[in-house]
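This is your field. Please look over both lines of this record.
***
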Amino acid sequence: MPHNRAAVLHNGAMMPLDVLKTADSAACDRHAEAAGVSGLSLMEAAGSAVAQAILSRWAKRPTVILCGPGKNGGDGLVCGRILRQAGWSVRIALLGDPGRMKGDAAAALALWDGPVERMSATSPGEAELVVDAIFGAGLSRPLDGVTAELAAVLVVRAIPVIAVDLPSGVCGDRPAPDGITVRADLTVSFHCRKPSHCLEPAASLCGELVIADIGIPAGWRDVVTPIAQLNAPALWQAALPVPQAGTHKHQRGRLVVFSGGASSTGAARLAAIAGLRAGAGLVTLASPPAALLVNASASTAVMVKRWDAEADTGEFLVGLRADAGLIGPAAGMGETTRRAVSEALTGPAPMVLDADALTSFESDPQALFAQLRPIDVITPHAGEFERLFPGLLTASVNRIEATAEAARQAGCVVLLKGADTVIAITGQTPVINRHASPALATAGSGDVLAGLIGGLMAQTVPAFQAACAASWLHGDAGQRLGQGLIAEDIPDALPQVLQALAERAARERALARLGRPDR
C-alpha cells in the first residue's frame, strides 16, 4: 500500500508521520538489532529520551519510577539513573522479583546503584512526580492487583505522571481500555506513533505526546507497513491549486450544493459558503422551488438555481457543468434523496455525500455502494457509519481498520468524523486527523467540512487528498477560533488559515533552497 514518507518538525527534529501497529514497532526494534544496534542501546536511548523530556519540563523534585518486569521497566530504570545523575531524588519501585528480570531489562537493573522497593499501592508515597514504566503498548489485558490499585491512587493524586510508551493499561492497538488505566500528563514514546497515541479515548489518556528518535536505522519501512499516517500539509499541499494572474472563476471549478426544503436551508448554505472559501470559483445552490425565496434572500456570492427533485439530478449537474457536487446536509431522508443521489452518481462529477444522503440508504447500503466510485467521498459520523456499516466499528480493533474496511466495501473515500477523524480509500495508507479543536463540536460544523471537501474537489484536487486537506483546514480554523465558535465562523476564518499555510510553504521552500529545515 503506497504511503507518503513525509515528516513533521518536532522539537527541532523531523519525525515521521507514520503510525505503526504494536507488533510492527517491535519489528523495527528487531530490524535495528539485526543492523547492529543492540537492544541495550535502544533501551538507553529510550530511557534517556524520557529523562530529557522530564528535565526540560520540571524542576528537581522527589520522583518515583514505577517499573514493570519487561523492557518498559528497563526504560524506566535508565530514566531513573539519568535523573539521579542530574541530582534528582529518585526511588525505584519494581513489580515482582528483581531476580526474574531478563535480558536488557536485567542489564539496566544492574546499572542502577540505588535501592529497589517492591511495588505497592503506597509506592507513590511523598513523591512529587511519577514515571509510569510498568507496562507498555504490548499489554493486552486489564490491569489487576497492585497495578490496578496504583492506577486508582494516581487518578486522585494531583502530581505529574509521565508514561513510558503508553499509560499502563492502554493497549497500543486498541484505544478503548478494558478497565482502569493510568492517566498521564506526558507520554514519551519511540520512533513512531501507535494507534492508541492517535485515537480516542486512549489519546486523551496520554496527555502531551513526545515521539523520540532512538536510532532505528534506515530500511525499517522495508520491514513494516504503516497502518496509518497522521494528517499534515506535507501529505496533500502539493495537490492544492495555486491561482495564477490569468486565472478566471470558471477555471477554479464549479461546485453545486443541493439544498433542503424551505425550513431546512441553512446547512446547504453553510456548505456552499465553505466551498467558495475553499477556492471554488463558482458555487451554485440547487434549491427546491419552495426554498428559492429563502435561499435567494440569504445568498450573495453563492448563486441560486431552481432544482426540481422530479427532474434528473445527473442531467441537472451536467447542465451546470459541475466539477463537483454535494448532497446531504438537511436534504431530507427518503426516496427523493435516494433518487437524487443515484442520478447524481451516474454523471461525471465527483460527489460528496453527507448526512441525510447517507441515512437515506440505511435500509439498503449495498444499493449505495454499488454506485459509488473512487472519485466520491462519504462523510459519516459514528451514527451514520453504523447505519451504513452495521457492527463494523465494534467488530474492528480500532477506527483505522474499520474505516479502511468501510472504504473497501463502499468503493470510495470514507471520512469517519470525530475527534480522531479517519480518512481511507483502498490503495492508500489511511490518514488520522488530530489537528482540530473540541470547539468544532457544534451544529453545522460537519456541513462546513463537507463544503470544503466539495470546493477542493471542484478544483480537481483528488478525492482522498481533498478529504485530508479539508479535515486539516477545518481543524485549523477551529483551533484559531477557539471556544464560542459557531459554524458560521468557520468559513470566515479560512482566508487566514489558507494564507498562513501558503506563507509556511513559501518559507519551507526558501529554507530548503538554503539546505536547512524550518525551525
